[in-house]
Write a structure and sequence with these properties.
This protein is α/β, with parallel strands linked by helices and 198 residues long. It has a single domain, classed as 3-Layer(aba) Sandwich (Rossmann fold), CATH 3.40.50. 43% of the residues lie in helices and 22% in strands. The chain contains eight helices and seven strands, in the order αααβαβαβαβαβαββ. Helix 1 packs across helix 3. The chain is globular. It starts with a helix and ends in a 5-residue tail after the last strand.
């Protein structure tokens, strides 16, 4: 994806947030089972979101906040807000500390299945990177929360294809979605939503 403005802004974030990014790297090395996207995926998401200029984003699966950091940094360009959900209390507390300087993030602790129905916003982008077998439940709960032309980005669709196959099949069989597989990192399925597409 060619995005000169996004690339410049990405490099600015690298330069201006070295301390936070070094902390994320250290945690990834030292703490097992932190579900972080890789650097290539982070850059792709950042530039993609800058280009879309969303106002409202929902993330399912905060982990320690690495993807949320990049998503929120991109959303700042369009004065967007990120809401992010994490079920694990230890990772939630870690992410709270890691993201304390980000002013456009709202964090929720709990099961996504419980929290999504309570959300009042309509979202331009949904990023799904949590328990893989839960993807199908998350998207069904998110459907009424999506704006027309919303973008849904699901991670791990190559690395954990078997676990997310029900989700993939659902997205490909529902004519409300147009899907594109992006073969970077662990694999992203990017789906454009159009309610009641004919």
């Amino acid at each position: 994806m060619e995005n000169t403005i996004g690339n410049k802004l990405y490099n600015d974030v690298l330069k201006n947030h070295k301390r936070e990014l070094e902390a994320f790297d250290k945690q990834k090395r030292e703490i097992h089972r932190l579900w972080n996207i890789d650097a290539e995926t982070a850059k792709y998401l950042f530039e993609y979101i800058v280009d879309l200029a969303p106002k409202k984003i929902i993330e399912i699966g905060t982990s320690n906040g690495y993807s949320g950091f990049w998503i929120s940094a991109a959303a700042k360009v369009s004065n967007g807000i990120l809401e992010t959900i994490e079920v694990d209390e230890e990772r939630f507390k870690l992410s709270q500390n890691n993201l304390k300087n980000q002013t456009n993030i709202i964090q929720y602790l709990g099961l996504a299945e419980d929290i999504i129905p309570t959300l009042e916003n309509k979202y331009d982008i949904a990023f799904i990177d949590a328990g893989k077998i839960g993807y199908i439940n998350y998207i069904k709960l998110l459907l009424p929360k999506l704006k027309d032309d919303a973008i849904i980005i699901a991670d791990n669709v190559i690395s954990h294809k078997k676990s997310v196959q029900e989700y993939i099949d659902f997205m490909k069989s529902d004519n409300q979605f147009e899907n594109e597989l992006i073969e970077i990192g662990t694999g992203l399925l990017i789906s454009k939503f159009k309610r009641n597409r004919v």
